[in-house]
Amino acid sequence: MSSGERRDGGLLDGFHIGQVPAGVGDEVSDFATEWDDVRFASRVWERQTPEGHRVDLRVHVLRGDRLVDLTALRDFLREYHERDPAEWQLSEFPHGDSAGLHDGVQAFWLVEPGVAVNVLTLPEFSDALLPTARSIQAGDSGPQE
């Protein structure tokens, strides 16, 4: 595969990941976890390095009653990712009919109350963050893994 080709990310907990940035690792793993009453269905793309493994991309589908709006989602993710609220600079971006927030290496949006998606990548893939986030849609359209 050439570095310019787009890869489909498959289905994750009811969401189709329409594209994976060119250049991310080929080792793909899925995980299910829970933190503070929010369930995570996660997929990571990683690569082997001389130091071990490096995660290039993470997609989380989050489900929990506390995720009532974008502000609640932001506050939850601030705690989860241990971000300083004074230093975490977020910008809005459109995702479908609603808005999401991003900081250059992370994007997230509320799909509906109780359901959200969070995408994280390394700075070297920051140009692909929003196109990747926008490619993630509810439903089973597209190829399945």
What is the gist of this entry?
The protein is mainly beta. The chain is built from two helices and ten strands; from the N terminus they run E-E-E-E-E-H-E-E-E-E-H-E.
Explain what the structure shows.
A 7-stranded antiparallel sheet has the order 3-4-5-9-8-7-6. It is mainly β and 145 residues long. The chain has one domain (10-138): Protein Transport Mog1p, Chain A, CATH 3.40.1000. It is built from 2 helices and 10 strands; from the N terminus they run βββββαββββαβ.
Structural descriptors:
145 residues, mainly beta, Protein Transport Mog1p, Chain A, 7-stranded antiparallel sheet, 3-stranded antiparallel sheet, 2 helices, 12% helix, 46% strand, disordered C terminus
Second CATH tier, the architecture: 3-Layer(aba) Sandwich
What distance lies between the first and last C-alpha atoms, to the nearest angstrom? Answer: 18 Å
**Shape field:** globular
Low-confidence stretches: 141-145
Number of strands: 10
What count of helical segments does DSSP give?
A: 2
* Strand/helix succession: EEEEEHEEEEHE
